[in-house]
């Protein structure tokens, strides 16, 4: 059964009202044309909605509480269980259809026995509560047992559970109610990646590795079932970028500190880096950002290629540089970058914009009063102090060198890629 009953924005608004505990809130549908100058055609409907006597439901006091679903959803055959979790396919006027409690793929039935086995992967209590806060929407909660249910459905093994919980603790895959391409990405650093057999070499962004793919699947399922992510409604993408939940491991064959050490953890601690919202990785191709001057620099590129690539960003956020191990070694040997910090400083000092370009930038003009645009410890960081500078003054694009994340992953040979986004780091070991 596919439903096309309501326009997208009506469904989005109704979901927001229900999330705030208001089951009946009047809506008036107006034009989506932002250039309209006359709201006259909609004024009568607005007046009516504001003055019409309240219905019994509208006059009810208190806050609506959604019914708590039963702990045991149903019993049946494998096909019956799969059909139940897929549910009625729901579509909107602009997209779909989408499944109800899945990512559109078959799932492993979350039997009591399977969930109990999954819970052996953590020492935390099944009743412990985690919170999801999704991009300004009402917070949602889920117990560790519910996270384990989603992990079973995704095909995870009990040893994956600490990573699943680390992803959950970062509000994994809650969706993004914007109108372009967004995503979420997770990188595991530390010995845990090898313990569970994650892929950090060739094809680390492709299918085939059970750990990488199961963690990605778990993230997608938790977003739907725990975070309230509704595809095409509270998660909007005109096209798409990386998958929701793209997960891979850092390659420990790096000439620099591994990410866990760079972030201040011990070398034997395992860490999850989580990106959400406007995060992307651009496919490798040096000559798309800057011509190569020799065959030798065609594949590995040069630091100038990094700068040209990262200058393509148009808003103040973090940068990502991802190197294959051989390329990372080349940059250390040929260009003298002996640490991640040296790369971060180089990028921060050279990825700059003219002040005049910032003054005309949409994100700076509309968001400059936000905390991210306040000058911080270094006067060169973008802030109000720059509003009267000469237009040709060079200003760093990022807030600080630490906003540049340097990752080593991939197989042998020369390759690198770049992207944008600022991660949050959390301990995987805390969830063992």
What does this structure look like?
- It is a single chain.
- By secondary structure, the protein is α+β, with helices and mostly antiparallel strands.
- It folds into two domains: 78-281, no CATH class; 286-431, no CATH class.
- It is 28% helix and 15% strand.
- The strands form five sheets. The protein has a four-stranded mixed sheet. A four-stranded mixed sheet has the order 8-13-9-12. It has a two-stranded antiparallel sheet with strand order 1-2.
- Strand 3 (129-132) and strand 4 form a beta hairpin.
- Helix 4 (112-119) packs across helix 5 (144-154) and helix 5 packs across helix 6.
- The radius of gyration is 24 Å and the shape is globular.
- The model is unreliable at 1-5 (pLDDT under 50).
Keywords summarizing the entry:
alpha+beta; 2 domains; four-stranded mixed sheet; 14 helices
Question: H/E order of the elements?
Answer: HHHEEHEEHHEHHEHEEHEHHEHHEEEE
Major beta sheet, strand line-up? 6-5-7-14
How many helices? The count is 14
Helix content: 25-40%
- The stretches of 5 or more residues where confidence is low (pLDDT under 50) are 1-5
Overall number of strands:
14
- Backbone CA Rg: 24 Å
Instruction: Kindly name the structural category.
Output: alpha+beta
Query: In whole angstroms, how far apart are the ends?
Result: 42 Å
Shape: globular
How large a portion of the residues is in β-strands, by DSSP E? 5-15%
Total domains: 2
* Average pLDDT score: 83
Biggest β-sheet description: 4 strands, mixed
